[in-house]
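Posted in: Protein Modeling Q&A

I'm a second-year student putting together a small comparison for a lab meeting, and my supervisor asked me to include a predicted structure for Transcriptional regulator. I've never done this before, so apologies if this is the wrong subforum. The sequence is pasted below exactly as I got it from our records. If anyone can share the structure token output, I'd also love a short note on what stands out.
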Amino acid sequence: MSKTQQLKELGKFLIARRGEITPSEVGLPLVGFRRTPGLRREEVALLAGVGVSWYTWIEQGRAENVSAEVLGSISRVLNLDYTQRQYVWRLADLTPDQSAAPSKPDAAVLQPYVDNWSPNPAYITDRVWNVTVANRSARELLAMDGGTGNILRDFFTHPGTRASYPSWEQEAPTVVARFRSHAARYPGDPLLAAQIDRLCAESPEFAHHWIALDVQEDACGVDILHHPLTGSISLKRTTLDFTVRMGLRLTVFFPVPGTSGQQSIEKLAAEPRTLGHRRAA
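Accepted answer (user: helix_wrangler)
Welcome! Here is the predicted structure, written out as tokens:
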């Protein structure tokens, strides 16, 4: 879609949403005959603090440099939800609005998506790498029980998780480079900024690797992980976007062909969830 087409689409979208808002919803009196349902252009402009001519240009697809501030005001008046705001921002070629975060995902709904991968370790994280759900194999392998609930923080601050990586020092710069690549998808996100600041304060190793400004593909790789029950296991890690709106991502580990990985992860899937606690102690 060309820039001109995007602006035309933006205008059509705003017109459609304007037609869905009644004057009473925004505190305006219903006076006189109205030829069309919804708000008038002049009313949206007034409530948003935008000039009528400029708002008219936006609806006509003629405004090439709409600011995030103006779009935010219009979105507020038209009562746009999170998904609608993201759509509007992208049509205007602006960084997606992060001011209204989507609702927290329901873990009970997501749990079957990781359980169905068993015995392969699998978990779902949000955009700051908090673990939303994980199956038993993943919890055992990465010593999640007793940790912070965040994959990145556990990697740098949780002794049990660090013990899961026999070559932790070599893995650390790669993990940070993967996270930097991931974070670039959400520029200006306050939750990610807070996460980075927190980790820099908690972990000198993270701070050291973060200022290296390295990036690396985060979709797949081979991890060597260690567990007291199985010893070291070579696993192929695959990460897929589960839902872009919430920033959820599904990570699944697969045995490397020609290794004993399959038998190892089957042991983990059958193991009662106690070793994770013991290793974290």
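A couple of things worth pointing out for your meeting: The two ends are 55 Å apart (CA to CA). The chain has a mean pLDDT of 88.
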